[in-house]
Automatic annotation (TrEMBL):
Gene responsible for this protein: puuC_2
EC number: 1.2.1.5
Oxidoreductase in keyword set: yes
Protein name: NADP/NAD-dependent aldehyde dehydrogenase PuuC
Organism per entry: Zestomonas carbonaria
Active site (catalytic residues): E267
UniProt family annotation: Belongs to the aldehyde dehydrogenase family.
Gene3D superfamilies per UniProt: Aldehyde Dehydrogenase, Chain A, domain 1, Aldehyde Dehydrogenase, Chain A, domain 2
Domain Aldehyde dehydrogenase, residue spans: 30-492
Pfam families from the UniProt entry: Aldedh
Signal sequence extent: none
Molecular function via GO: aldehyde dehydrogenase [NAD(P)+] activity
Source superkingdom: Bacteria
Annotated keywords: Oxidoreductase
């Protein structure tokens, strides 16, 4: 929790100088076309500044800079222990500029300032630090060869990496890519979402200050269909890493196939089940977690617990606890440190969320909490955390990712039925199970087709745990040493002695 008040943050917001230009070869630069777009705050509808609208000409410039930097070896051939030092310094600078970065994030995409500071900034810095600290502790392999041969199995940097990221955790998703990509010696071009470019633009300069050589880290703000597409189709980008929707993830695989077969690693959408059995150890704790799982970050979370599966025998007891817990999640001005639900990212996203609420009504689900736009007088875009009871898994609100604070409550009678419903989705990002029976916990966890499974909690894990999806939630993993695999090629060097 910060000691700054809402008035302090508002004062700082007024004093902010917003940098909206691209960052190529160690300096800020306008888009080659000179084009810009308005950066609008969802907090109150204010125009924060102008952001460079990059396109293929800028992609050319950035890829050339990244390639030249990679070939120079200034970073790619630096001893891992030296890269480590620079990465740790980069993490420290992110932390030192934490208040400024948190403010930019909140103004840009609407999340509560307390979360931006305590979660986004800290976790982003930690991701960079953790990857940096690890890089001089990972070893390659020596194969089991005959006596007169030596087989080396080594991992080497892949080259030029383009990272395309979303707007829900703009800084954090960027750093989940930057940490392992930079630590392993690659050059990176980061393409933030057009809805939230400000923190990515700001940290580019911090990277330079930390000692990352020019051209190794570039940032191209702009739209997906312009600069994003140009990077994805580029013949000299070796690896494309992405976090965002499943729809765009699929498109990126096509772009790779149409161009140079660049490696494509995708972290996409989710529709995660949160299963509460009658023998959950603490129903109140489960209810509080269920409320947080849909209201945190305005429900704009890939792992949002958007399908709450509740065993029939406790439904009447449990649902009121969830409704009560959700009352603690109230939309408010995100610059107020006491606020725990901020603004949605923009009007378009708000309309999407409201249209799903309409679909819930139309399909016959029963609204038991929220359901409306709120705080309209602020000029910002806010939606009440919402619960629908009586949802069947076939309904639109249970099948599609809403990416907003809308919870579907689905009843089940047996563990088999719970698992069947939980897995009946094209997604497979995360799932949670609440039970005090250890065998049931393990058997259910094994049966769930999801990249992360949490038992008696929601959203566990830290940098040591790989994060990513089964099925149409993606491939590859962010975080942990497993993430390094995405940014390296495996080489076998066989020597006759
Ligand atoms: P999105 O797919 O619309 O956009 C993501 C990024 O892709 C943006 O930078 C966008 O500009 C770019 N893009 C769009 N069209 C493109 C194109 N044709 N070519 C290249 N780039 C293009 O997603 P979003 O709305 O920004 O983010 C929300 C989505 O992100 C949700 O589905 C959410 O589940 C997912 N997400 C997943 C994870 C995870 O780790 N699995 C984490 C956070 C968010």
């Amino acid at each position: 929790m910060t000691s700054l008040t809402r008035a302090d943050w508002e004062q700082r917001a007024n004093d902010l100088k917003i940098e909206g230009r691209a960052y190529i070869q160690g300096e800020y630069t306008a888009a080659a076309s000179g084009a810009t777009f308005d950066c609008i705050s969802p907090v109150d509808g204010r125009v924060l500044g102008q952001v460079a609208s990059c396109d293929s000409a800028d992609a050319e410039r950035a890829v050339a800079a990244a390639r030249a930097a990679f070939e120079s070896g200034a970073w790619s051939r630096l001893a891992p222990a030296k890269r480590k030092k620079v990465m740790i310094r980069f993490a420290e600078l992110i932390q030192q500029h934490g208040e400024e970065l948190a403010l930019l994030e909140t103004l840009d995409m609407g999340k509560p300032i307390s979360d931006a500071l305590a979660i986004d900034v800290n976790s982003a810095a930690n991701s960079i630090r953790w990857s940096g600290e690890a890089i001089d502790k990972v070893y390659d392999e020596v194969a089991a060869t005959p006596h007169n041969e030596l087989g080396l199995v080594t991992r080497e940097a892949i080259g030029v990496v383009a990272a395309i990221v979303p707007w829900n955790f703009p800084l954090l998703m960027s750093c989940w890519k930057l940490g392992p990509a930079l630590a392993t010696g690659n050059s990176v071009i980061l393409k933030p979402s057009e809805k939230s470019p400000l923190t990515a633009i700001r940290i580019a300069q911090l990277a330079t200050e930390a000692g990352i050589p020019n051209g190794v880290f570039n940032v191209l703000p702009g739209y997906g269909h312009t600069v994003g597409k140009a990077l994805a189709l580029h013949m000299d980008v070796d690896c494309l890493v992405f976090t965002g929707s499943t729809k765009i993830a699929k498109q990126l695989m096509i772009y790779a196939g149409e161009s140079n077969m660049k490696r494509v690693w995708l972290e996409a959408g989710g529709k995660s089940p949160n299963i509460v059995f009658a023998d959950a150890p603490d129903l109140k704790a489960a209810a509080e977690a269920a409320a947080g799982a849909i209201a945190f970050n305005q429900g704009e979370v890939c792992t949002a617990g958007s399908r709450l599966l509740v065993e029939k025998s406790i439904k009447d007891q449990f649902l009121p606890l969830v409704i009560e817990a959700l009352k603690g999640w109230k939309p408010g001005n995100p610059l107020d440190p006491a606020t725990n639900v901020g603004a949605l990212v923009d009007t378009q996203q708000m309309n999407t969320v409201l249209s799903y609420i309409e679909a819930g009504h139309a399909d016959g689900a029963k609204l038991v909490a929220g359901g409306k736009r709120t705080l309209e007088e602020t000029g910002g875009v806010y939606v009440e955390p919402t619960i629908f009871d009586g949802v069947s898994n076939a309904m639109k609100i249970a099948r599609e990712e809403i990416f907003g604070p809308v919870l579907s409550v689905i009843e089940f009678e047996t563990a088999e039925e719970a698992v069947r419903i939980a897995n009946d989705t094209p997604y497979g990002l995360a799932a949670a199970v609440w039970t005090s029976n250890i065998s049931k916990a393990h058997l259910t966890a094994k049966a769930l087709r999801a990249g992360s499974v949490w038992v008696n909690q929601y959203d566990g894990g830290d940098m040591t745990a790989p994060f990513g999806g089964f099925k149409q939630s993606g491939n590859g993993r962010d975080k942990s040493l497993h993430a390094f695999d995405k940014y390296t090629e495996l080489k076998a060097t066989w020597i006759k002695l």
